[in-house]
Amino acid sequence: MTIVDPIKEAAPVDPNVVNITINDKPVVARKGELIIAAADRTEDFIPRFCYHPRMSPVGMCRQCLVEVETPRGPMMVVSCMTPVAEGQVVRTATDGVKKAQEGVLELLLANHPLDCPVCDKGGECPLQDQAFSHGPGESRFVEEKRHYEKPIAISDIVYLDRERCILCDRCTRFADEVAGDALITFTSRGNDTQVLTFPDEPFSSYFSGNTVQICPVGALTAKPYRFKARPWDLEQTESTCTSCSVGCRTVVQSSRDELVRYQGVDIDPVNWGWLCDRGRYNFESVNSPDRLTSPLMKNGSELVATSWSVALENAARMIRLALAQSTNNVAILGGARGTNEDAFAWAMLADKLGINQRDAQLGDGLSPEVFNLAQATIDETCAAKTIILLAPDVKEELPVLYLRLRDAAQKRKSRIIEFSSRNSGLTPYVWRTVGFEPGNQAQIVREALATPEMKEQIARGEVVVVVGRSNLAESEVFTLQALGEVLSAVPSAKVLPVLRRGNVRGAVAAGLTPKDNSGDAIDILNAAAAGKIECLILLGVDPMADVADSGLVQRAFTQVKNVISIDTMINSSNRNADLVLPAAAYGEKAGTTTNLEGRISNVAQKITPRGTSRPDWMIATELSIALGVDIGVSSLEDLNEKLVNSVVAFAPSSDAKSTHGDGVLMARETPVTISGVASKVTDRNAYNYRLVVSRTMYDSAQSTIASPSLAGIITEAAIFVNPLDLARIGVTEGANVRVGADGTNIVIAIKADNGINRGTAWLPFNHTGVDIRPLLNIASDVVDVRIEPIK
Amino acid sequence: MSRLNDANIKLAREIIARYPRPKSALIPLLHLSQEQNGYITREAMQHLGELVGVTSAEVYGTASFYEMFKFEPVGKYLINICGTMSCALMGAHELMHHAEKKLGIKAGGTTTDGVFTLAHAECQAACTEAPTLQVNYRYRLRVTPDDLDRLIDNLRDGKLNEEFPPHGVLSKVRQSIDASRAVGAKAPEDVNESPVWLDGKAAL
Ligand code: SF4
Ligand code: SF4
Ligand code: FES
Ligand code: FES
Fold first, then answer.
1. For residue A529, is pLDDT > 90?
2. Is the minimum distance from the CB of A34 to ligand 3 under 6 angstroms?
3. How far is CA A202 from the centre of its chain?
4. Looking at residues A240-267, what average pLDDT do you find?
5. A184, A188, A199: residue with CB nearest B65
6. Does A368-497 carry CATH code 3.30.565.10?
7. Which fold would CATH assign to domain A9-93?
8. Distance (Å) from the alpha carbon of B102 to chain A's nearest alpha carbon
9. Potential cystine with A594: which of A284, A304, A505, B102 (Cβ 3.0-4.6 Å)?
10. Minimum distance, in Å, between the CA of residue B151 and any CA atom of chain A
11. Fold for domain A689-789?
């Protein structure tokens, strides 16, 4: 007797899986996937120019033709427009396909100037490469080619050579679909079709560099890289951008030990291959002739070069002297510019010396308790049904996060509810914008979220709150209150804290945050102003330029006895320091960094540090030895090991490989809830204007000013009000007005802005020309100003 | 002032309301603005962009696709002489030479008084009546040099004002559509019911 197995039920067929064959090999594809995308997972490369996996297909170039079996025999289809179907038989290299691909290439080359020897793209050009791999080898076209003026500048950064353009629609599609800046477009028709801007309206997009990267020919080139290097001379390594806290994945390229280019790398959880122009082009500041090459020490009123041994000895002396009286005599500001390891080394040193006053944030950040709320990743945020913004203008401060949020709103149908004092870059894409006057946001949030419409929306699914500081002239309390209101209305909401400085999350987690309830950066500055700090250590920060309340900083700096600055260049804060230690810059040091969602990824060293500059962690180590409190670090690996073993948050990155590619998320603590904070705001005198002060992408940040290609883009300071208020003040656009608060006056140009409510005025922070900071007083919760015409 | 004037802004709003998306109204609005100014000015393109919510670049991209939108001032009368096969065989080139001499300009140019612009055109789809020309896109057929002389004189003397409105005016009678018959402000992806012509009953 034979025992028959019970008949097994057939496994349910996954409706999302489609089986096809490509060149007779079976391929498993997703439902709705395009043939070209499925083929990209196989060995068989289908040539293409217009297809880009992060943009919708358009079928412009016809280079991706393949054959698909049909009942009536093989049919030629464009593989970037044809979705897979069950049982589909695809062939990518038949004689027919080859002939078609050669034909398309011959036509694409008909008008192409073939000036490869003088073209920046030569050597990494898809047109060049595919002409070799899939082209006819010889052209039958002998006629005169089409001519256009050789490159025309379409923005401060980007040049367009229309002769080379193959009209693939990648740049124009990117501008419209991804960035939302449809400032370049196809114009004219037929043989005259060309990419152009509107006359005198340049392609001034924050994301223009991406078009240069994805242009499949050398039609778009960028000023910072033009004629700088040849692809075959480039050395490169993958890294993470730390110009802001989004943490875009990049590849850092150098030639002859000098940085020449960053390119975006596509990682799924963060930047999808995109970079913003500031992050992409501020490598120029690393190459700046103003970089410090040796330690500088004050001699009389001047800073003069000295050796590291003398400098460290003196640093140790200053610190020891100050500590002799009290550990409260020394404070450390900064650290958000460095790596996790840099921050950790300094935190260890501070621990050894008993220095509790340290802060990587400069009074414009968030209390670390926000990091302990239930956290959302960027992906989770963009997949949420409702995204609540209590944040600065993301387009200005965290550019690539803006791209992700815009995509979520446009394509994924997430609904964004924006609470804001002025319109932001995201406003055109949000579901609802609720305006508030600085100070009353908590009340506005409470009322808004109680409306039936909002309640219904919130009930639709996950809610993520994107929270950050939207106004430098407003106390943090208001943001926390408003956040508290959201969380009490939606207790299940997760939080994505958006802090701007590159590695602020890592620095805080590694210990550069007030310890044992000691004061934060503002308390430190207040203590300094009161003469209670003798030695101030600046870790890559420039409080004179970066702290909103310049009066406070000035008072602090006049009182502090010794300032020790660790920085890459001279700035307004270390100009009068007693000691300046040259730090290695981005690209000159390795380690890990942590982005705003807590993702730990590696930053790589590509070039040798300038002069004798060295990484912050090494300076901390050497200083610890000079101080006789050796923190026991012998190498970066050693330091990293200490970090992952002693700080739980970094434990997931203990395998160095995990920080490559997508990186790895910090260990999350058990979420806490936020405690209620109460405060009340004074009413605004109806004749006054309440200030909103916030940052824009191009401000006078050191890395921007020191990058020649970007420096020219920074605009002059101005104050912006509602057009009706302009009339009420009795001035016309562009006129100079007197803006006063608490006995301080500045004279500044005034401009109209429809995105501001009446009674509110916006001042972009840190622009050129007029210094607006004298108006700001960090001790007051909000700042109200008078605006008067100048007779 | 080459932005739309107040009356035309009002009309533009009416036109925009006929489409599910404002930017769908771009082509009619470009015609409106060409009617107002005789050609499409930069300011007009910027204004239209504001009205329908697209960038000036997008307006320019759309407008420049179409031959009938002009970006330089055009004479009050745009004379397009067909030069394609049938007309060429029937004396179109001679006709063009004659016109050039008569007007004192070359093809593509505009007379200094701004009244006439002369241009080559491709087949105007009236080959049996060759040679043909159009004045502001209104036909004249089997045109002889004498006909052309008379035509130009009469145009200049204002005797043909009835038949030939100035360049940019598409038709003297403006089409209007009752608001109740407008397609409505529904974007295609939001339309759930099948189109009328698919539904037998509704069609009856
Ligand atoms: S400029 Fe480059 S990206 Fe843009 S359409 Fe031309 S070839 Fe494509
Ligand atoms: S968004 Fe931030 S991390 Fe990304 S490229 Fe720009 S500056 Fe760098
Ligand atoms: S890649 Fe498919 S048509 Fe261009
Ligand atoms: S050839 Fe002149 S109308 Fe056709």
1. yes
2. no
3. 23
4. 97
5. A188
6. no
7. Ubiquitin-like (UB roll) (3.10.20)
8. 32
9. A505
10. 32
11. Barwin-like endoglucanases (2.40.40)
Residues of chain A above pLDDT 70, percent: 97
Which of B23, B26, B48, B58 best tests the A interface by mutation, with the highest count of A CBs <10 A? B58
Q: Count contacts between A and B (CB, < 8 Å).
A: 42
CA-nearest residue for atom 6, ligand 1, is A165
| A173 contacts in chain B (CB < 8 Å) | none
User: With 60 as the cut, is the pLDDT of residue A676 above it?
Assistant: no
Report CB contact under 8 Å: A197, B57. yes
**Chain B residue closest to A196 (CA)?**
B57
Chain A partners within 8 Å of B55 (Cβ)? 181-183, 185, 198, 201
Residue B197 pLDDT exceeds 60: no
CA of A401 to the centre of ligand 2 (A): 9
SS3 category, A224: coil
pLDDT above 80: residue A562: yes
State the Cα–Cα distance between residues A574 and A563, nearest whole angstrom.
8
- Look at phi and psi of residue A194 and say left if phi exceeds 0, alpha if psi is from -120 to 50, else beta: beta
Residues ≥6 apart with Cβ < 8 Å to A468: A366, A390, A391, A392, A397, A479, A497, A498, A499, A500
Name all domains of chain B by residue range, CATH numbers in brackets. Answer: 6-63 (1.10.10.1590), 77-156 (3.40.30.10)
pLDDT at A629: 95
Tokens, residue A246: 């989004």
Domain residue limits, chain A: 9-93, 296-365+503-665, 368-497, 689-789
| Residue A139 pLDDT class (50, 70, 90 cuts) | confident
Look at B54 and A182 and tell me if their CB atoms are within 8 Å: yes
pLDDT in tens, A688-732: 999 999 999 999 999 999 999 999 999 999 999 999 999 999 999
Q: Average the pLDDT over A566-588 and give the result.
A: 96
CA nearest ligand 2 atom 4, residue:
A248
* DSSP 3-state of B117: strand
Secondary structure of residue B191 in the 3-state scheme: coil
Mean pLDDT across B182-192: 64
Q: Is the pLDDT of residue A742 over 90?
A: no
Task: Give the pLDDT confidence of A352-361 residue by residue, as tens digits.
Answer: 999 999 999 9
Cα separation, A478 vs A467, whole angstroms: 12
Q: What is the pLDDT of residues A224-251, one digit of tens each?
A: 999 999 999 999 999 999 999 999 999 9
Give mean pLDDT, residues A480-497: 94
ipTM: 0.89
Q: Give chain A's end-to-end CA distance (angstroms, integer).
A: 112
- 0.90 cut: is pTM over it? yes
In short, whether A60's Cβ falls inside 6 Å of ligand 1 is no
Tell me the average pLDDT across A776-784.
Answer: 88
Supply the pLDDT for residue A251.
Answer: 97
Interface of A with B in 171-210 (CB under 8 A): 176, 181-189, 196-201
User: Scanning every residue of chain B, which has its alpha carbon at the shortest distance from the alpha carbon of A198?
Assistant: B57
Contacts of B153 (CB under 8 A, 6+ apart): none
Decide if pLDDT at A6 tops 80: no
- B57 interaction partners in chain A (CB closer than 8 Å): 182-185, 196-198, 201
β pairing state of A330-334 and A535-539: parallel
Radius of gyration of chain A (CA): 29
DSSP at A328: G
CA–centroid distance, residue A220 to ligand 2 (Å): 21
Cβ pair A392, A469 in contact under 8 A = yes
